[in-house]
Amino acid sequence: MDYRESYLKQLEEKWEHLTITNDIMFGMVMENEQICLELIQRSLPELNIKAISRITPQKQITGPISA
């Protein structure tokens, strides 16, 4: 197996083990309205959510550094 094949295999294994707790995966889920709605419905079935109104991706917040 050459370097490229090995690298692609490593990437595939990482992808297979991603969960919603991974920041990148979470962002991808939140950007897709259908998937986001399904995740919320499955997580909170007692709320009987039928729609979501606006999806805004996660944003980096920076503030002053305290000494």
How does this model look, in words?
- The chain has 67 residues and is an all-alpha fold.
- Helix content is 51%, strand content 0%.
- The chain is built from three helices and no strands.
- The protein has helices spanning 3-16, 23-31, 33-43.
- The longest helix has 14 residues, at 3-16.
- It is flat, with a radius of gyration of 18 Å.
- The N and C termini lie far apart (51 Å).
Summarize the structure.
This protein is mainly alpha-helical and 67 residues long. The protein has helices spanning 3-16, 23-31, 33-43.
**Average pLDDT, to the nearest integer?**
86
Low-confidence stretches: none
- SSE order: HHH
Determine the strand fraction and express it as a percent band. under 5%
This entry's quaternary arrangement is single chain
CA radius of gyration is 18 Å
Q: Give the helix tally.
A: 3
Q: Give the number of DSSP strands.
A: 0
Shape: flat
Given helix and strand content, the structural type is mainly alpha
Largest sheet: none
- End-to-end C-alpha gap: 51 Å
Query: What percent of the residues sit in helical stretches (DSSP H or I)?
Result: 40-55%
Please name the defining characteristics of this protein.
67 residues, mainly alpha
Indicate the topology.
Elements: H1 3-16, H2 23-31, H3 33-43
